[in-house]
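Annex B, item 7. Sequence and C-alpha cells for protein A, then protein B.
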Amino acid sequence: MPLIRSILHLLLMTVTVIPWAIAVLLAAPFLSSTQIYWMCAGWLRVAVSGGTAILGIRNRVTGMENLPTGQTSACVLLVKHQSTWETFSMVTLMPHPLAYVFKKELLYVPFFGWAMGRMDMIHIDRSKRTEAFSKVAEQGRRLMSQGVWVIMFPEGTRIARGQQGVYKSGGTRLAIETGAPVIPVAVTSAKCWPRKAFIKRPGIVDISIGKPISSLGRKPDELMREVQTWIEAEMRRLDPEAYAHEGATALVKG
C-alpha cells in the first residue's frame, strides 16, 4: 500500500506541475512578483494536500505565535532539512511570501525549475562563495524590506533522520547584515518522507517554530551555535526514538 500511495502522489505532482508551470510562464509578464509567488504556491498546496490525502502525511505545527507580525516585518527562517516535504510545506504555512536561497542548477529542472525562475528568489552559484553571499545579502535586504521572509537550510542539504549535519553560518550572516531576527524551525519530516526515499509512510510531521533570536550585536558563528543548539534539542524532544542511538553510545563509552 505505501508503494501504491507513493506512486499515486508522484503522478499527481507530475501531472499537475506541467500545466501549472506553463500557466506561470505565460502569465509572468503580466503579474507582479507577489502574484507569481502565490500562483506557484497554489501548486505547492496541491502537492501538500495530496500528500495528506494520498500519503496520509499530516503537519502538526506549534509556535506560530513566534512569527513576526506586521506587513513588512523581516526575519530569516533557519529550518532543519530532512526531506522535500518541508520545502513544500513551509510555503503553505507561512503568512508572508518566502524567498528560498537555492543553487542555480535547480532552475534547469523542466517545468518546476522554469517556474521557479519566474519567482523573486535568491539563486546562487555555490562555486563562487564570496560573490554568492554578496548576492544573498543584497537581494535578502531588498526582499525583506518588501515583507518577504528569507528561508535557508543551514545544514545545506537533506539530513537523515536522527543525524546532524554541519550548520553553516550563511543564514546568520545574512541576519546580522540586515538586522533581521532569526527564527529557528525544527522539522521531523523524515519520519514519513525519508531522505532520497521513493516510498513514503503515513504519519505526523512536527514543525516547531522557535522564538525569534535577535541578530543585533552578534557574531555569525556564535549566533548559529545558538540556532543549532535550539534546533537539535527540539529535534530530540519531538522525535526521541530517532536519537535513541545517542543514549546507547553514551552508555557504551561510559
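Protein B:
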Amino acid sequence: MSIEEIQEEIIDEFSGFDDWMDKYQLLIDLGGEQEPLPEQYKVESNLIDGCQSRVWLQADLTPEGLVHFQAESDALIVKGFVTLLIRVLSDHTPDEILNADLHFIEEIGLKEHLSPTRSNGLVAMLKQMKLYAMAFKAKQG
C-alpha cells in the first residue's frame, strides 16, 4: 500500500469521531496495540531529541531496500503518534519517505489540538525518520 493510501485510511478512521477526546482515545489505543520495542534498541543513541517524553526510534534497511521503523515511548499519547508515523512511513523506500507529503496530520486535526511541546515532539520524530531515510539513501549510493 502506498504512503498516500495509508494516509487516506487513517483520515477515514479518524473522521468517524467528532469529539477530540474520542480521537485522543483512538491514539492511545493505537499506541497500546504497537509491538514493544526490543530492549536492545532502548539505548541513548535511539532517543529522539526534542521530545518531552522519551521516544526511542530504531530504523533498519531491509534486504529489499525498504526502511523498517520500530519505536516506543513512555507516554501513551506519544506512542500513538509514533505508531501512526510508523504505519505511514515504515516499509517504504528512502525516496518514498523523503518525498512523502504527510497531510494526514493536519487533516485529522492533530496539529491544531497539540500543545506546542507535543507538536515539537511530533516534528522531531518525523525529522528523525526522514534523516534515517536520507542516510539509507546515501548508503545505497
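Comment on protein B: Helices lie at 3-15, 20-33, 76-89, 94-99, 104-107, 116-140.
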